[in-house]
Amino acid sequence: MPSSVERTETTSFLLMFQIHTRARDSRARTGTLHLAHGEVQTPAFVPLATRGSVKLLEPRDVLDLGYEMVLGNTFHLYLSPGPELIDAHGGLGAFMRWPGPIITDSGGFQVFSMGHGGVADEIKGRGRGQEQGSSSSAILSIGEEGVRFRSYIDGGERFLAPETSMAVQHALRSDIALVFDECTPFHVTRDYTARSTERTHRWLERCLDWHEQHGRAEQVVYGIVQGGVEPDLRIESAETVAASRCRGVAIGGSLGQDKAQMHQVVDWTTAALERVTPERPRHLLGIGDIDDLLVGVGLGIDTFDCAMPTRLARHGVAVVPEPSQRWRVDLAKARFRGSQEPIMEDCHCPVCRAGFTRGYIHYAVRAGETTGRRLLTLHNLSFIQRLMSDLRQAINSGSLNETVAAFMSGAAPSWS
Ligand SMILES: [Zn+2]
């Protein structure tokens, strides 16, 4: 009965992302993603569980902080422990004991980072590959079919193609799967970016074909907009992705040489998406510094993922409301030895509420005590979660500009 199937599809498409409030003077909106394993209130930050764990935390910690979705990485999980093992456990959520929604990256960014030589460095630590640690993987060939490379785990030859990526994400049973794309670096020519973006569009169709034939209906597939720093290529890519069967849109790629250019690229892209597909959810890949979140929400981004809060924590850095210091304080620095101040004044995160001092964190981090890094991970993720909650409330009450201005001048997130 084709008609009833079609109606079901339309219904689920509409229900998958519900927009509640749109800001009058920006592209910001609040919404709810209705996914197979639960709901996500947007705009939302998505912590990384790259290799199947939010580093140093258990799922209950992440839930207690108020997070509703985490991100797993196809490239790393494909290499180890492998999709068969995770599938046998019932998928990534069952394997890592995370009960909520999961979004999986396609592996495109990691596999191409090897060949392009540090896209992650190029975008100054905002890259999607930042949690992967050192890798000695190497690209053997890139072609229309896919990418052949050497595994950093065992040196064995592996092949990742649009179909492989979708099959792995199928085995991981993520709620949101991303299509396999080429993440073009910033330094290549316009011609290379144009050809690469076209190939990414052909791979988009191959991913959607695979999903249509073999995928689960409850897994939502997002297309990825590429196009480098070329406005016309970005717009064309946004239009191509919008015209496809994908259910949501991710914005990927090397987004420029500095923050101003990155914000501009996001602006071009979401302006185009607002015009051609305002109803689809939008995910910004690998970006999530505090100022990027504040700008990104205004540009109409619904979900963000970034290594920043968790990676900084592992290096002894706390997120604090100090814009002139890029919202960071490095507690590993000698001047914090013996400090009896809290990580952040009036912070209601579980760590600050328990009374841990900067001096203790300094000691624990310097002594190599895992607990120090865990406490900072909790504080940092709590800060981001409360910031996002404040932004959602501000959009709903029509006061986003004032709230963003307050954060930009050093306000702390409210306790909610
Ligand atoms: Zn705190």
CATH class of the largest domain: Alpha Beta
Number of DSSP helical runs: 17
Query: What radius of gyration results from the CA coordinates?
Result: 21 Å
What would the average pLDDT be, to the nearest integer? Answer: 91
Label the CATH architecture of the largest domain: Alpha-Beta Barrel
The unique ligands bound to this protein are:
zinc ion
Strand coverage percent: 15-25%
Tell me the name of the CATH homologous superfamily of the largest domain: Queuine tRNA-ribosyltransferase-like
Provide the spatial order of strands within the biggest beta sheet: 4-14-13-12-11-10-6-5
Into how many domains do the coordinates divide? 2
Overall geometry: globular
The helix-and-strand class reads alpha/beta
**Overall helicity:** 40-55%
Poorly predicted tracts of residues: 1-12, 118-135
- Here the CATH topology of the largest domain equals TIM Barrel
Tell me the span between the first and last alpha carbons. 48 Å
The counted number of beta strands is 16
Strand count, sense and closure of the main sheet?
8 strands, parallel
List strands and helices in order, with pairings.
Layout: H1 2-16, E1 17-22, E2 29-35, E3 38-42, E4 44-46, H2 59-64, E5 70-73, H3 74-79, H4 83-88, H5 92-96, E6 102-105, H6 108-116, H7 119-122, E7 138-142, E8 147-150, E9 157-160, H8 162-172, E10 176-178, H9 190-214, E11 220-225, H10 231-243, E12 248-251, H11 259-276, E13 282-284, H12 290-298, E14 303-305, H13 308-314, E15 317-319, E16 328-330, H14 350-353, H15 358-366, H16 370-396, H17 400-408
Parallel strand pairs: 4-14, 5-6, 6-10, 10-11, 11-12, 12-13, 13-14
Antiparallel strand pairs: 1-2, 2-3, 7-8, 8-9, 15-16
Helix pairs in contact: 8-9, 9-10, 10-11, 12-17, 13-16, 15-16, 16-17
This protein binds zinc ion.
Zinc ion (ZN) is lined by residues 343-344, 347, 349, 351-352, 379, 382.
